[in-house]
Amino acid sequence: MTQVLTADCVAKTFGDRRVLSSATLHAVSGELRVLFGRNGVGKSTLIKIAAGWLAPDGGNVYVGGQRVASITLAKLAARGVFYLPDHDLLSPAFSVRRQLEMIRAQFPGGSVEEAAEQVGISERLSQRPWSLSGGERRRAELAAALVRRPTCLLADEPYRGIAPKDAEDLTRIFRGLARNGVAVVVTGHEVPTLLDAADHVSWCTSGTTYELGPPSVAVQHDAFRREYLGEWYRAGVRIGAGDREARRLLP
Amino acid sequence: MRPNRVIVRAYLGRGLRLWLAVRAVGTAVLLLGHVNPIRLPVASNIQLVAFSVGVCFLETYRQRERALLGNLGVRPRALAVIFALPAIVGEAAIRMVVVAIS
Questions:
Q1: 3 state SS of A157
Q2: Which of B6, B63, B73 sits opposite A93 (nearest CB)?
Q3: Judged by CB atoms within 8 Å, which residues 34-73 of B form the interface with A?
Q4: Which domain holds residue A48?
Q5: Measured between CB atoms, which of A89, A93, A105 is closest to B67?
Q6: CATH number at residue A26
Q7: pLDDT (tens digit, 9 = 90+) per residue, A117-136?
Q8: Is residue A246 one of the residues assigned to a domain?
Q9: Closest by alpha carbon to A85, among A56, A53, A112, A115?
Q10: A75-89 pLDDT per residue, tens
């Protein structure tokens, strides 16, 4: 397990609002890491900085142990980083196939057909992304990642607005990438799905990050449970909001 | 990282389409101002090329392609060259035709 990418002691201020003061993000090969945090605490900002999408006010980004000066996504992409933004990745101007072909031509090695089959969009390749459903678009984006064969995948809220079945497929693909040695970092609020999938949990809060460890350890963390998971996830027992009996039995 | 042929072809096509659009609108405006749109000073040709590259970048932002291009390792400078190429060739061709017929 080697650290493929590290955004170290990152600081970022928007106007007079300091979002991050000293946050760190590690992407480790063969691991699926999840970055949790409440809305507005800066987890998307952190992942954007790690991907070279946003310039930090302070801190450094290291790829393969080497510091990257004046980071841009294009620079990091050449070093094996692939970034899935919190909005659509694929352009509505070209067909899915054409965009996957662009990636394959730029970074040889992957196969468009194999990737499309793996994510179940073989019959949608000739369509433009705007004509696909949300779940299909997410899968097409993952097909792009599969064609790219990155060493590090940074996915910002990839589960947004998709059905549970699509979320399941997405998790399977993330896990498959991690199994093949890719360093995967995912953000999101889909706690059960992400906790089931993750190897490691990081928590972003108050401008900084905490490495909580494996999910089984993370859910025991008092402050994480109190401030992020909330009451519905206590002592590793998931209870629905309407499950009064379960609530009554809990301490 | 240099963009490969597939990317270059896709964005050259956009550069050509948008230069033609910019040229068509520019021609209409110049005709309204009673200026010959074919016989333009070199500075105006350069302005048309620059404007057409600007419109291409706007289109790239409108289509939200920044992340895709970033993931492809394509830097804005390389993209600007691709966008400028059809406009430069087009403007040069117009000048050559004007010289040939005059």
A1: coil
A2: B63
A3: 63-65, 67-73
A4: 3-218
A5: A89
A6: 3.40.50.300
A7: 999 999 999 999 999 998 89
A8: no
A9: A53
A10: 999 999 999 999 999
